[in-house]
């Protein structure tokens, strides 16, 4: 069939729609948030494509469509690329491993590499990969670097006693008592006069059954992992053995074109392509030539995607959203499989206007975006946060001034350093300053490379990370109204007669269906990491046992309430202000379509971010807070963006400050002040190329964003 035909699609908020979709074409599904785009694309097309394929090979026999639709014809095997499944946190996952380029280079080195010394046996491909036990550098475990304490920076005064060292690190009273008992005779001794073995034990601790004792390294590592900026005293150190090449000693003796594979891992993709183009053909076997040809084609494609500034060893966790999306897009474009249906979730998210085609005009021609509120005050350093000497990732020793009580936009091409500046530097230094009362009081001035931290009452990052990672988490539980709803059911006369407390109206406590444990489905594992879900035949997906469903409040069971949209719930609970108030904020943000019981992992990044913002707005009262948002318009139509802008303006009008990382020109046009990084991404970025009001950026010839702010 040349078409996919759907009859009666009715999952979530889809209302029995009939649709014909052409195959072998690029099809766009559009509409405002909550109109059913993801329900159609993923819950119907992707899920049924996957299920029909599994049924066709004898798996999942008897699993029906479970009332998601009447009929669906012409579907083929499907592949999904979702926003919320591609973010990486594994430090060993790099551009080279994710694209497969490192594996291919390892094949070339194993085949055609030449050792300068006496190497009797030819090394295997695994010996050239830092991800294998045979290939990794033993000293750094294949990381290329490790974190170490700069003792001279931590304890610059030679007269500082051991007690003063612990006090400077804010060791708790309980631990201080234990440490004093352990090192009592040395507590008043200057650290630098301690015996070497005591110094080593204080700094690095001792190990008992693999567990490290309480020591300075452990204290600083905990601070680092909590996001505090301790890099001046606990800094990344290049491994002295492999010099950042990540691979073991034997592989470091093998060369190709005068370079080791670890050196290629540190080249940019553009630099690697240049190296391979200049590699003499006589150094390669026919096998090597074939693999090199494949590598060069992959590199050209990545460079066309404007990723040439990345290195193979760049950790995926450090990439911007736009860079991650493009790497995953390239992986699918390289596929040699035929007749697949690819379902992408907003593949242009995170891209600058110059990196994608503008779809930015309303089809109706009407202007719906709110006009920027022009603040009456002028910006100066006395009402700002100031960062000094910012060198995070590709940033080049920047001094950055963030005006307070304003909406400040951080603009620039993907990879230019926007997240490095805000999340990796500003928030970390604020965290460190917030943990040091002396720094806040100004005793040590700009001790953490940040000034003005005392000018805000607090700060919070509103990211697109999921608000919950399991199906038990819902919008209702996240914004704090689910407990109140359960208490309402427990207060009903029949519930009191049966001694049913609030736990009986929880689907992961006493009220849960015993067969499915309150999940509403049976999970069928096909492999250790691949499963499909089948609706629970006992509760029919309602998640509760019969006893709990026998109690109603105003004619609705607890399961009925979970299926309510936010808009309907506002009317249903109109007499309960503590429940209605946060729901009204969500409706103002254009999210009245969400159901109270929708599993949190199913929310898009943009939806999760707006739920977090609604929670903050619900409890915000005294003002003078700093809110940092990372691309909040992801997944939003212009209509929804207009609603978001009004709420952000309300925050600023209430005396708060907003910093927003954005590519969306409608948001940037509504900012009071813009800081633009560039001029390109990666090592070609990391500089401030323009700053000022939107009007000032429009006439700044150095700005790459200004021409879009019309």
Plain-language structure description:
With 710 residues, the protein is an alpha/beta fold. The protein has 5 domains: 3-86 and 336-344, 3-Layer(aba) Sandwich (Rossmann fold), CATH 3.40.50; 95-142 and 243-318, ABC transporter ATPase like fold, CATH 1.20.1580; 145-238, no CATH class; 381-466 and 603-708, P-loop containing nucleotide triphosphate hydrolases (Rossmann fold), CATH 3.40.50.300; 475-588, ABC transporter ATPase  like domain (ABC transporter ATPase like fold, Up-down Bundle). Helices cover 33% and strands 15% of the residues. It contains 25 helices and 22 strands. Strands 16-19-20-14-21-22 form a 6-stranded mixed beta sheet, with helices on both faces. A hairpin with a 2-residue loop joins strand 17 (521-527) and strand 18 (530-535). The model is unreliable at 360-367 and 437-447 (pLDDT under 50).
In terms of topology, how is this protein built?
Layout: E1 3-9, E2 17-22, H1 37-56, E3 71-73, E4 78-81, H2 95-99, H3 101-112, E5 114-115, E6 145-149, H4 151-154, H5 162-168, H6 173-182, H7 196-204, E7 207-208, E8 211-212, H8 216-225, E9 234-238, E10 254-255, H9 261-265, H10 269-277, H11 286-304, H12 321-333, E11 341-344, E12 384-390, E13 398-403, E14 407-411, H13 418-434, H14 437-440, E15 450-451, E16 458-462, H15 475-478, H16 482-490, H17 493-497, E17 521-527, E18 530-535, H18 546-549, H19 558-562, H20 566-572, H21 577-588, H22 605-619, E19 625-630, H23 638-653, E20 657-661, H24 665-669, E21 673-678, E22 687-692, H25 694-698
Parallel strand pairs: 4-11, 14-20, 14-21, 16-19, 19-20
Antiparallel strand pairs: 1-2, 1-3, 5-10, 6-9, 7-8, 12-13, 12-15, 17-18, 21-22
Helix pairs in contact: 3-11, 10-11, 20-21, 21-22
């Amino acid at each position: 069939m040349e078409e996919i035909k759907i009859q009666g699609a009715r999952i979530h908020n889809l209302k029995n729609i009939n649709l014909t979709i052409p195959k072998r074409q690029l099809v766009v599904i559009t509409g405002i948030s909550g109109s059913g785009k993801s329900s159609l694309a993923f819950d119907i097309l992707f899920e049924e494509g996957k299920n029909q394929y599994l049924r066709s090979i004898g798996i999942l026999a008897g699993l029906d469509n479970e009332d998601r639709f009447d009929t669906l014809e012409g579907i083929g095997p499907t592949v999904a690329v979702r926003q919320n499944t591609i973010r990486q946190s594994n430090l060993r996952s790099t551009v080279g491993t994710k694209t497969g380029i490192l594996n291919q280079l390892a094949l070339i080195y194993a085949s055609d590499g030449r050792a300068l010394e006496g190497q009797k046996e030819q090394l295997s491909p695994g010996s050239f990969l830092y991800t294998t036990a045979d290939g990794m550098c033993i000293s750094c475990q294949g990381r290329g670097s490790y974190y170490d304490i700069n003792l001279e920076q931590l304890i610059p005064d030679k007269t500082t006693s051991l007690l003063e060292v612990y006090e400077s690190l804010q060791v708790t009273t309980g631990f201080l008592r234990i440490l004093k008992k352990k090192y009592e005779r040395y507590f008043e001794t200057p650290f630098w006069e301690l015996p070497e073995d005591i110094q080593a034990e204080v700094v690095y601790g001792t190990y008992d059954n693999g567990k490290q004792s309480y020591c300075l390294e452990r204290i600083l590592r905990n601070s680092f992992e909590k996001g505090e900026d301790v890099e001046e005293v606990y800094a990344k150190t290049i491994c002295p053995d492999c010099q950042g090449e990540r691979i073991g000693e034997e592989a470091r003796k093998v060369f190709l074109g005068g370079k080791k594979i670890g050196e290629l891992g540190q080249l940019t993709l553009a630099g690697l392509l240049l190296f391979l183009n200049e590699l003499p053909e006589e150094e390669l076997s026919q096998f090597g030539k074939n693999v090199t040809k494949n590598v060069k084609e992959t590199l050209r494609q990545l460079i066309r995607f404007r990723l040439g500034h990345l290195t193979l060893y760049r950790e995926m966790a450090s990439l911007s959203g736009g860079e991650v999306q493009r790497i995953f897009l390239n992986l699918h474009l390289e596929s040699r499989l035929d007749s697949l249906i690819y379902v992408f979730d907003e593949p242009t998210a995170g891209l600058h206007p110059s990196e994608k085609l503008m779809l930015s005009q309303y089809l109706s021609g009407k202007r719906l975006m709110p006009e920027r509120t022009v603040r009456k005050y002028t910006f100066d350093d006395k009402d700002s946060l100031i960062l000094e000497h910012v060198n995070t990732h590709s940033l080049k020793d920047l001094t950055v001034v963030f005006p307070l009580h304003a909406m400040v936009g951080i603009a620039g091409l993907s990879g230019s350093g926007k997240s490095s500046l805000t999340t990796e530097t500003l928030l970390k230094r604020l965290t460190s300053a917030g943990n040091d009362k002396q720094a806040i009081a100004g005793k040590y001035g700009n001790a953490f490379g940040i000034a003005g931290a005392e000018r805000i009452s607090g700060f919070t990052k509103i990211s697109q990370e999921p608000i919950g990672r399991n199906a038990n988490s819902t919008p209702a539980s996240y914004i704090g109204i689910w407990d109140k709803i359960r208490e309402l059911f427990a207060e009903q006369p029949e519930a009191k007669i049966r001694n049913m407390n609030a736990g009986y109206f929880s689907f992961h406590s006493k009220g849960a269906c015993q067969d499915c444990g309150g999940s509403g489905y049976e999970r069928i594992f096909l492999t250790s990491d691949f499963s499909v879900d089948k609706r629970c035949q006992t509760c029919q997906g309602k998640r509760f046992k019969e006893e709990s469903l026998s109690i109603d409040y105003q004619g609705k069971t607890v399961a009925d309430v979970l299926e309510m949209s936010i808009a309907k719930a506002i009317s249903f609970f109109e007499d309960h202000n503590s429940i209605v108030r946060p729901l009204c904020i969500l409706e103002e943000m254009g999210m009245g379509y969400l159901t109270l019981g929708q599993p949190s992992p199913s929310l898009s990044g943009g939806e999760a971010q707006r739920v977090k913002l609604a929670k903050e707005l619900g409890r915000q009262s005294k003002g003078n807070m700093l809110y940092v948002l990372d691309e909040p318009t992801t997944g939003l139509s212009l209509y929804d963006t207009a609603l978001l802008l009004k709420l952000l303006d309300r925050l600023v009008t209430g005396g708060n400050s907003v910093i927003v990382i954005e590519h969306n020109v409608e948001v940037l046009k509504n900012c009071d002040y813009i800081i633009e990084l560039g001029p390109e991404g990666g090592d070609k970025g990391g500089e401030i190329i323009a700053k000022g009001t939107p009007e000032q950026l429009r006439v700044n010839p150095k700005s790459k964003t200004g021409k879009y702010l019309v």
